[in-house]
Amino acid sequence: MGDGTTIEITGLTKRFGAVTAVEDLTFTVEPGRVTGFLGPNGAGKTTTLRTLLGLERPTAGTATFGGTVYRDLERPFETVGAALDAAFHPGRSARNHLRVTATAAGIRSSRVDEVLEQVGMSEFAGRRVGGFSLGMRQRLALATTLLGDPRVLVLDEPINGLDPEGIRWIRGFLQSLARDGRTVLVSSHLLSEVQQSVDEVVIISRGRLVRTGTLSSLELDASPRTVVDAPDRARLAAALDQAGLEYTEGRGGFIVAEPDPGIVGHAAFVGDVELSSLHRLKSGLEESFLALVGEGEGEA
Ligand SMILES: Nc1ncnc2c1ncn2[C@@H]1O[C@H](COP(=O)(O)OP(=O)(O)OP(=O)(O)O)[C@@H](O)[C@H]1O
């Protein structure tokens, strides 16, 4: 592939009336790897992706492909393939759906059979979409995004509802797209769902950035730790600093690199800080994720 295209989100804020869906979000998504865009329901993932794709206007900040906003891209279909909420006409065959989309986008029709082959759907090409399983629809949505042979793929919850075989397949497929030098951004509300598929993570919660980094850096975090919170977080931070404890701030409190809550509680006692919670964080990637986004926030 040619040179890669980076997704650049800079100071992005989006408000809908009184609701702030996304607030001062800054991150980049690099080519050559699969990046998971993670956060609980209502965290602002879809709003971010819709803004990136020019479907919403930012209140502040920018969302671009290598510095160019979607509507200014010279060849949008060759630059980015996106599957947000893919809707298919139930009476159309898979091949017909792709033909109609290709024609509307000015893409040569020979791509239709190529992408059907790519997603392993050739034998179902003539079948009506109305009879497709969720997994087949997901594959067709993916095929649609690939029509323009884009350098960037933006996929909203592509793994949701897939069976284990489908998950195995998409995992390998996303990795092969990234190995070709593409930029692959995959949203999900579950870390466990994408954990085998992604190299990097961008985690948001309530519209704000919580964490970016490699999946392995998150795995390092997954050792036993203590979560502590206080009505006065500034005082608590000072007490933790005083005790020489390392921590990161999550929605549910401070995640302290100390497996013994007794030691953390003692540090708070010495600093004369009233605590609102103190518990040991079980080891594990999903626990680590939930602590970062604020456990119990899962349902919007
Ligand atoms: N058009 C809109 N008008 C008003 N509020 C909106 C609109 N779109 C999104 N929101 C609000 O913005 C917040 C973020 O929603 P968004 O759909 O971006 O989150 P999400 O992370 O994609 O969640 P989900 O996984 O449930 O889709 C929510 O509080 C939502 O209700």
UniProtKB/TrEMBL annotation:
SMART domains assigned to the protein according to its UniProt record, in alphabetical order: AAA
InterPro entries named among the record's database cross-references: AAA+_ATPase (IPR003593), ABC_transporter-like_ATP-bd (IPR003439), ABC_transporter-like_CS (IPR017871), P-loop_NTPase (IPR027417)
A GO molecular-function descriptor: ATP binding
Record's keyword terms, sorted: ATP-binding, Nucleotide-binding, Transport
Source species taxonomy: Bacteria, Bacillati, Actinomycetota, Actinomycetes, Micrococcales
Domain ABC transporter, residue spans: 7-231
Protein name as annotated: ATP-binding cassette domain-containing protein
Family: Belongs to the ABC transporter superfamily.
SUPFAM superfamilies in the cross-refs: P-loop containing nucleoside triphosphate hydrolases (SSF52540)
Domain of life (superkingdom): Bacteria
Pfam families: ABC_tran
